[in-house]
Each structure stands twice: as C-alpha cells, then as structure tokens.
Design goal:
Order of helices and strands: EEEEEEEEEEEEEEEEEEEE
Structural class: mainly beta
Strand content: 35-45%
Shape: elongated
Helix content: under 10%
Number of helices: 0
Number of strands: 20
Oligomer: single chain
Distance between the termini: 35 Å
Strand order of the largest sheet: 1-2-3-4
Largest sheet: 4 strands, antiparallel
Radius of gyration: 22 Å
C-alpha cells in the first residue's frame, strides 16, 4: 500500500500521514516523535483497495471567526475532507453515489497558494476545480475537461471508409464513440475501455478490463456481451483483440 505525508501549512511541527497498508490516518503534533490515529469517523466502508497507486494527502487551512484549522484532504477512490484537522471526516466527492460530483481514483491535488480554499484535483477523470467555503461549510467541484482533452486512450478503431467514425478504449473512462461527428461523442462502454474494432457502421466491438468483449450490430443502439470463456488462462487487464 502507499504512504503519504504532509505538514500543516501554519505549524511545521504538525504532520499528517496516511498508510494504505493499515487503512489508517495518523497525526503528530511534535514533528513525528509520537503519532495518534485520527481515522475516527472516516467514512465507513471506504474502499482502500487501490491505495498502492490511488492515494493522496494534502493539507490546507481555513479561518472562521478568527480560529485557524488545518483542512485535510485524503484522496483514494473518493475524495474525503476533514475541516477540523482530523477530528471529523466526510466525503466531498460523493464518488460512491449517483450524485457524484468528482470522478473516481484520486492522484494529485494542488492548493492555490494565494487562496487556501481553492484547489485543483487530478483524478482518472481529468482535472477538477474545488472551492471550499468555510463560512458556510459548503463546497463546489467543477470539471475542467473539454471533450477528449484529458482522456488517455489505450487504442482506437477507425471506420474503414469514414475517418469521422471512431471508437476507442480509455483508461477508466470506458469507450468513447463518434458516429460521424467529432464534436458529439457518446460512450457505449464501461469501466476501463480497451481495444476496439469497427467492421462497418453497424457491426462493431468494444472491450473492457480482463477481456470483456461487447458487440453491436446496429451502431450501438444496443449491444450484447460476447466475452470468451478463458478458463484458468491468464488475461491481461487491457487484453488485445484483432
């Protein structure tokens, strides 16, 4: 599991650490001589399964009625905030809900050096702009991602006679599809998109992780799984098809 460490911007002897192996967050107020487990009210059922590579710890500050508190952000799959230096925790990305305002899998975060209540968040969905409002204890998160500009494509397939018909598999953003208009994309895939194939305007294939294969015979108006039975054979996370 990953480990991250971050110090308080206002008190250099206050240090925070997160351990993906232990599924815990710790705090020291004496420059690391002793540590206290502050995981406490961290959202129950939180998913630490990807903490080897999806892990982030960032500390900012807020001032309300003259009182300064550290604001601690923990990014794993979701983004979680403690507005009071680790006493309480809450999800601010809502990643596990139907009302998610942030894409899953957090990798980076930068606090605005001129405003501790503003930040940029980097995740598998691209770059997002966070504004925290300590006076009202509310926040907003806005995506800063024009179509395709921050999408990592593993592979694309192109129609044999119309180069505006494209289908591609992307890292954690399924399989974007352009049916002739490169400014208007749909996404008939799921999960981590992989290799793809276009036979003609009707018959096409996309894939997702571990060699899940889907086929359409009507240009993605509908589709069905045609995944092979691989038995005990090893399968690549992004497995090729031809």
């Amino acid at each position: 599991g990953g480990v991250r460490i971050a110090a308080s911007p206002t008190d250099p002897s206050t240090v925070y650490a997160i351990s993906g192996d232990d599924n815990k967050i710790f705090k020291s107020t004496n420059a690391g001589n002793t540590w206290t487990n502050i995981t406490g009210s961290f959202p129950g059922g939180y998913n630490w399964s990807q903490s080897e590579y999806d892990i982030r710890l960032t500390v900012s500050t807020q001032t309300v009625n003259g009182v300064i508190n550290d604001v601690v952000y923990v990014g794993l799959i979701d983004l979680v905030q403690s507005p009071d230096g680790g006493k309480t925790w809450r999800s601010i990305g809502n990643t596990y809900t139907n009302s998610a305002i942030l894409h899953n899998d957090q990798h980076s975060m930068a606090i605005n050096p001129n405003n501790p209540n503003e930040a940029l968040v980097g995740c598998d969905g691209g770059v997002f702009y966070l504004i925290y409002k300590p006076d009202t204890n509310t926040w907003t998160i806005k995506g800063l991602n024009p179509i395709g500009s921050t999408t990592q494509f593993y592979r694309i397939a192109v129609h044999p006679t119309d180069s505006n018909i494209l289908l591609g598999g992307t890292q954690d953003n399924a399989s974007p599809y352009s049916n002739g208009n490169l400014t208007d994309w749909t996404n008939p895939g799921a999960g981590d998109g992989g290799f793809a194939a276009i036979i003609d305007s009707n018959t096409q294939f996309n894939t997702s992780q571990n060699l899940s294969i889907y086929m359409t015979t009507n240009g993605w108006a509908s589709s069905s799984s045609v995944s092979p039975s691989v038995g005990s054979d090893s399968v690549g996370f992004i497995a090729p098809i031809t």
